[in-house]
Amino acid sequence: MVNSFKMSKESGEEYISSPITDEMGAQEECNTIIAPLMNKYDSLVTSIDKMLDEIEPYITSEYCIYRVPQKIRKLNEEAYNPRVVSIGPFHHGDERFRSMEVFKKRYFKKVVRRDGGIHLKNYIEFLKYCEASIRQCYSEIIEMDSDEFVTMMLVDSCFIIELLLRTYYMDFRDADHSMLSATRLCNDIHRDLILLENQIPFFVLEGIFNLAMTNFKPLPLLDLTLSFFENYNVQQKPPAGFISIKHFTDLILILHRPTSQRDVKEFKYTSSATELNEAGVKFTAGSSNCLLDIKFSDGVLEIPCITLYDKTESLIRNLMALELCHYPGDSYMIDYFFLMDFLVNTPNDVDLLIQNGIIENWLGDSKQAADLYNNLNKNCVIISSNFYFSALCEELNAYCKVPRHKWKATLKHDYFNSPWRTASTSAAIVLLVLTFIQTVCSILGAAKADEEATSSWLEEYRVS
């Protein structure tokens, strides 16, 4: 605080103010200076206040549909983008999907007019009631007004429901379905429906489905969905095992997860497949239908077979993106492909796994498969204290440290890796043994002759 201040009175005289007078004067002068500034920045203050009011609370517990993080997306944009159909708000309105919008609206019409259109108002009421909850499922603010958002959700939901019904029930099919079921287009639709950015919440589908099926009692929606994605349900998990799913990508992820619980252990690295093989580890294709059911016992690493084809990378990347965004502390696919990245460093590693029935490579040459494994985990992270395969890596590393395992593997690899090599090696060993025996016999014979000569000389010496 300023204790004194020189001021001019009306009389023009100068004086040194008292502390009280001084404080009042300073406050008055401060107000005089600040007031114009406040008026000057009123519009900016109002603008920032409005911006703060528009910021929605960060409700992480509700988010389940995400934009793929840019650091991941930039590695392969195509893997995350729809090819033929847009579902939900993230790719809505893209000109590339205009032709498919026609089919979506036709399928939508089939659903709402199947019972004379009497339920249309019910659909809208349901979606309006759930709109806030639906919007909260998306990781970013959806810049669409209420009517546009509800219309989009209704059309997309009905399209999916009608597609599931027509796929399962032949009675629902018509000329439109014949066009959509063309092999390539059908494959692209399947692919697009599992993309993380191309989802709508499953509870929305269930609500629309229940309204639409009041006069027809098909299988439950989850059963129809599992039938549609049956190629991914290789573990034959029953519908009763799904307490709740968030959307189709989440369903596919659950279908790939193991039934066993993870052991909490520290992260461990391991060597490549070729290096492990040179250290005595044998590889074999596992009989389990779960990719993550990898076992190591008595020097044999058992890995379930995986088929690599054109849709594999897109499927894997979207499942990993969901784990990265929604299950960061409980990732299985990320952990699996980290392990496979350890095993596959070069095309030679891929060749070894192909020879043992662990990889079916439909991508082309082994280099493409090796590049796939080496690039999937870029910019991904794992929880080092919760790596699913830590115990497995620890067992492999311990096995490789035993010298006799490597000696045994080297002997088998260099001298007994084929019938002809085994025969020639065996013949060489027999020849070596016979040569050794002959040499020993010759030495013994020579020693005996020397002994006899010595004895004869001694005898002659005594006589003389």
Question: How is this structure best described in words?
Answer:
The protein is elongated and about 140 Å long. The chain has 464 residues and is mainly alpha-helical. The strands form three sheets. A three-stranded mixed beta sheet has the order 3-5-4. The chain has a two-stranded antiparallel sheet with strand order 1-2. Strands 6-7 form a two-stranded parallel ribbon. It contains 19 helices and seven strands. The N and C termini lie far apart (139 Å). Helix content is 56%, strand content 5%. Residues 1-17 and 411-416 have low confidence and may be disordered.
Question: Which properties best describe this structure?
Answer:
two-stranded antiparallel ribbon, 19 helices, about 475 residues, mainly alpha, disordered N terminus
Spell out the helices and strands N to C: EEHHHHHHHHHHHHEEEEHHHEHHHH
- Share in β-strands: 5-15%
Q: Can you tell me the residue ranges where pLDDT is under 50 for at least 5 consecutive residues?
A: 1-17, 411-416
Helix count, DSSP H or I runs of 4 or more residues? 19
Strand neighbour order, sheet with most strands: 3-5-4
Shape: elongated
Structural class: mainly alpha
Largest sheet: 3 strands, mixed
Helix fraction by DSSP (H/I, runs of at least 4): 55-70%
Overall pLDDT metric: 83
Write a concise synopsis of the structure shown.
By secondary structure, the chain is mainly alpha-helical. The chain has 19 helices and 7 strands.
How is the secondary structure organized here?
Blueprint: E1 6-8, E2 14-16, H1 19-40, H2 42-54, H3 70-73, H4 98-113, H5 120-135, H6 146-168, H7 175-180, H8 183-192, H9 202-212, H10 221-228, H11 248-256, H12 273-278, E3 282-286, E4 295-297, E5 300-304, E6 306-308, H13 312-326, H14 333-343, H15 347-355, E7 359-361, H16 366-376, H17 390-400, H18 403-415, H19 419-463
Parallel strand pairs: 3-5, 6-7
Antiparallel strand pairs: 1-2, 4-5
Helix pairs in contact: 4-6, 5-6, 5-9, 6-9, 6-10, 15-16
